[in-house]
Amino acid sequence: MSQPEWMPDAVTFDLDGTLVDTAGEIAAAVNATLAEFDVEARPQAEITALIGDGLRALMLRLMAQLLLARPSLAERLQPDAALASLERHYALRVGASARAYPGAASTLQALRAAGVPTGCVTNKDGRHARMLLEATGLIEHLDLVIAGDTLPQRKPHPSVLRSAAARLGVAPHRLAHVGDSRTDLQAARNAGAADWAVPHGYNGGEPIEAAAPGRLFDDLGAVAAHVLALRGHRLAA
Ligand SMILES: O=C(O)COP(=O)(O)O
Ligand SMILES: [Mg+2]
Predict the structure, then answer these.
(1) What is the pLDDT of residues 31-57, one digit of tens each?
(2) Predicted ipTM of the assembly
(3) If both were cysteines, with which of 10, 50, 197, 206 could 213 make a disulfide (CB 3.0 to 4.6 Å apart)?
(4) Which reactions fall under this protein's catalytic activity (predicted)?
(5) Known active-site residue 14
(6) Ligand 1 nearest atom to the CA of residue 22, by list position
(7) Model confidence, pTM
């Protein structure tokens, strides 16, 4: 007799690039910051490729790239001032143009209706994450939000998804985490959770296939369809 397929008891989702397409407003905030320091705008793709470890990390990496190419920019692009400016510009825009990916709300809803708790685990700061989840209406379909400043560590540290699992009342190996980036897959593997992915996100500008996800879904709707089919199978047996 064949083994029944592994089925999660809870599912967590990454935010940027997984539940919500935030790249446009992040790039707009970054370019508004650069303009304030008299630095020319960068292409959206260059900024998008830096999303994944939080806003501060994004800006510091972008500045390192810019300063490498043009050391003289150091005179006017100071890290503390640039980070403070980005915080202001992003706070003005967060949730304004970001859109939930197709199927985000219905997927969360369907999972919960089937008795599978849902969470959002992001490296974004909590205040920004909450604003986005409220603006997109996803917050009401989530049992848990863990942001980049909720715990002492952030993804991919093993404690993050272990803590998510504990708060959702399941063992880490009963959790599936769905993400758009290598960081998410690593966070899942480090915690002993399933490393699932969707292809529509950012992942440093590289296809997520290169990071060998345990399971790659075409879209968010396919995640719910998969879990519900497994549960139906299990319930019917
Ligand atoms: O804000 C970021 O850079 C990353 O956020 P994410 O963990 O939701 O992808
Ligand atoms: Mg992401």
Answers:
(1) 999 999 999 999 999 999 999 999 999
(2) 0.94
(3) 197
(4) 2-phosphoglycolate + H2O = glycolate + phosphate
(5) yes
(6) 1
(7) 0.95
